[in-house]
Design a protein that fits this description.
With 156 residues, the protein is α/β, with parallel strands linked by helices. Helix content is 46%, strand content 22%. The protein has 6 helices and 5 strands, in the order E-H-E-H-H-E-H-E-H-E-H. It has a 5-stranded parallel β-sheet. Strand 3, helix 4 and strand 4 form a beta-alpha-beta unit.
Length: 156
């Protein structure tokens, strides 16, 4: 299994970077995982929110491998339990889809082009998470899903 996480914005605070690094380290034995960061665009400099979304969207789409199954993190996406996510990842793998990309958009959302490219959407609930926290939660859930899939204990 190969995971690519494509996220708008850089992890500026050390605690976010440390949390992501920890889950990336735990995840690596189970799946090759790469994180690609896309620069966030200032709407004031881009000519408005829609223009910023369009520029970020083009960068997001360029970072997603063409053959990858793309899951967009979106508040209106499909909610899955940890077990449900594990089962979905297993089903994709059994169907021959082993290259998965997870996209985390910017604070103003994503462009229509990014939504159109998404093969499916995933939600962590109806609450709004800071994008840095969403990245940590995604990495943790991918690690947890791999442990569930293999019937291994999850170390808390």
């Amino acid at each position: 299994m190969r995971f690519t996480i494509v996220a708008v914005g850089k992890l500026k605070e050390r605690f976010w970077a440390d949390a992501c690094a920890e889950y990336l380290k735990r995840l690596q034995p189970y799946a090759r995982t790469e994180v690609k960061e896309i620069a966030d665009i200032d709407p004031a400099r881009a000519g408005g929110i829609e223009a910023a979304r369009t520029k970020e969207g083009a960068a997001l789409l360029a970072a997603v491998p063409a053959s990858s199954h793309m899951l967009l993190l979106a508040i209106d996406g499909k909610q899955r339990s940890s077990t449900g996510l594990s089962q979905r990842l297993d089903a994709l793998g059994l169907a021959g889809t082993s290259d998965l990309s997870f996209v985390i958009g910017g604070s103003d959302g994503v462009s229509d082009a990014v939504r159109a490219r998404a093969d499916e959407t995933l939600s962590f609930g109806s609450i709004t998470l800071p994008h840095n926290l969403a990245r940590v939660v995604l990495l943790e859930q991918l690690y947890r899903a791999q442990k569930i899939s293999r019937g291994e204990p999850y170390h808390k």
